[in-house]
Give the backbone structure.
Amino acid sequence: MSNVKRIVLTGGPCAGKTTALVRIIEHFSNLGFKVFTVPEVPTMYSQGGWSYLTPNPKLYYEGELAILQTQLALEDSFMRLAETCTKPTFVVCDRGTLDISAYISPDMWIELCQKCGTTPNELRERYDAVLHLVSAADGAEQYYTTATNSTRYEQANEEGLQLARDLDKKVNKSWTGHPHLRVINNHDDFDTKLNRVILEISNVLGIPQPIEEERVYLIELTGELPDCIESEITQTYLVADPGVEVRLRRRSWGGEVVNVHKTKKRVSPTDVLETERQVSNALYESLLQQADPYRSTIRKTRRSFIWKGQYFEIDTFHEPVSNLMMLQTKGVAQQEDVNFPPFIKVIEDITGNKQFYNYNIALRR
């Protein structure tokens, strides 16, 4: 298997992907990496005369098929180029194959995959990481513009903003289950958003990162959640060396299952190195034999959603504890306020409280 990492940069309209790509190339080239970038295929076809808005269903279908075929071919070609390099290298895809599913019906998506001799799960496994940049239409409306993309049909009015928000959520949902899906929030300062992209790619490349505490809160729900991604999580900790945390997670949703093996190792008092890999069902069952006898299996329901440009996860625990609901922010800068949704009542800020770390919740009493 190739050691070259393949990373997807995706998101809704006006999310900052183009600027992020420039920053990625500059930053990692200065560190000695060769960065290959796969161009955005749907834009190539739109600029070539094809349109999502065509009233001709056959033309629409053939266009989507061509986009998927071209995306696969281009990615594979760039990967072959990258594999010939003698210096460290990685490939960044301006959108990935699963983005296509956000624009078409589920039946058409399955049919297109079959025509290309693949499956949604196989496509998901092509990528080492997926970075979803949230559209400026959600939480950073003052920066939303169509000027940077002549083919964008979500205009900068309230109707267009809502279309952009909806599309952003569809694109995010299309990548559900990827073991390294990271949602990059909007921020008051766009540089903060770009720095988060650099940090996440550094993590994928195995560059140790500063230890960060995501903000965590005990909460109650006081109203209905918006459209969210709901999944069931089974989490087992494995026997590991001192200073190393090894977690085996099974995530299931909509009839699909993804298993992820994650290792977290402190390499210094301030830095941590994390590695993730997807494992087959057979290997998952085998690894369960290494379960830490001093820790119980955690079972919980996770609901993920974007609210005013910020990404949240709500975990409702079932085992080994119950009546515990925690909200975790993802990528909210230290100096920024959390945009708590009105349907959430915060009971207590438990950020940094080791009692509520999953690793400790699992500890057998």
In short: The radius of gyration is 21 Å. The mean pLDDT is 90. DSSP finds nine helices and 15 strands in the chain. The longest strand covers residues 256-266.
